[in-house]
Amino acid sequence: MEGTVLTYSEIAEDLRKSPLKGFALRREAMNRLDGLPGYDWSGIYRLDGDLLRLDAFVGAATDHTEIPVGRGVCGTAVAENQNQVIADVRELSNYLACSLETRAEIVVLIRRDGTILGQIDIDSHTTNRFSPADEAGLEEIASVLAERWDD
Question: Per-residue pLDDT for 45 more than 50?
């Protein structure tokens, strides 16, 4: 399938079939998402008390390896218990810039039995990159990751 762009459902199904779990599965998921158009940074943050800690990611290194709940887009998602879809990060007053090139961001919570385990965080260099279809697709992937969250 070299050169073929997979759909969210295909990625989720591949992850379901994988023998991987925990960090290895999360890393594989980020590698798969990195192949989607406009996915310029793909990462997972684990929720550890009142901090989000960077876990598996693909893309440039970031200074934001720990984010307090309530701060930035990632912290807001946890504080509000709600996914975040940001069309243009330049319009936010509380944005934590991982890259000066980032224009849009989507954060989808990873939950198991109502408890937030972490989140998928995707940055794009294109404004208005993320749609409700992207959110739904990432939620499907998040549910697979939640099933096998622990190492």
Answer: yes
